Amino acid sequence: DADVTQTPRNRITKTGKRIMLECSQTKGHDRMYWYRQDPGLGLRLIYYSFDVKDINKGEISDGYSVSRQAQAKFSLSLESAIPNQTALYFCATSDFRGHEQYFGPGTRLTVT
Amino acid sequence: AQKITQTQPGMFVQEKEAVTLDCTYDTSDQSYGLFWYKQPSSGEMIFLIYQGSYDEQNATEGRYSLNFQKARKSANLVISASQLGDSAMYFCAMREGPTYSSASKIIFGSGTRLSIRP
Questions:
Q1: Measured between CB atoms, does A112 come within 8 Å of chain B?
Q2: Which of A26, B16, B18, B94 has its CA at a distance of 20 to 30 angstroms from the CA of residue A59?
Q3: With 60 as the cut, is the pLDDT of residue B1 above it?
Q4: What does pLDDT average to over chain B?
Q5: DSSP B2
Q6: What would the 3-class secondary structure string for A1-45 be?
Q7: How far apart are CA A9 and CA A6, in angstroms?
Q8: How far apart are CA B5 and CA B3, in angstroms?
Q9: Most B CBs within 10 Å: which of A37, A44, A59, as the mutation test of the B interface?
Q10: d(CA B111, CA B91)
Q11: Does A59 touch chain B (CB under 8 A)?
């Protein structure tokens, strides 16, 4: 079984809808991250969390919110989706050393 | 200002040749880490190699090595004896600050697309 899972893997939604992307990990890591990937822009950090009580904004947090429900779960919400949030979204985890991140398979989100 | 710069959007290399992917970074922190990831066409992100700012030796992992030049703020990835399976996007990334700090986030460059010719 994969160490970092993301659901759904693909989603098409309409402008204005609320959507939640979920991430679960079995690595026992405290640190979890959400990134989005757009063509030509690499990965940009949306939010990250170093433990259940620690949530931090990344480079592009506007229009997004997160919830760290447990050590193993970190959800990303788009309260009112807009077309320029169409992207590939990755969840990642790392241990306290931060020497390596383990990525989920990604969620391809399309907002029409 | 960009923190991580990858100046080669795309590269073509003959199979079995060595290839160097460039990465420069910008930070005022003394403690930081540098990473390289590979993203094949299937989309997953695969960790390749890590270099800590205080590591004196260049990191190596199999055919991958990281040419760390601290004074020049560069962290180039060297792939020896390239293979067809090395064709992918390659991302350089940096963790600013010490690992124990909650301000310590990891940011990525825009990537280099490497294509290996048979």
A1: no
A2: A26
A3: no
A4: 91
A5: -
A6: CCCEEEECCEEEECCCCCEEEEEEECCCCCEEEEEEEECCCEEEE
A7: 6
A8: 7
A9: A37
A10: 4
A11: yes
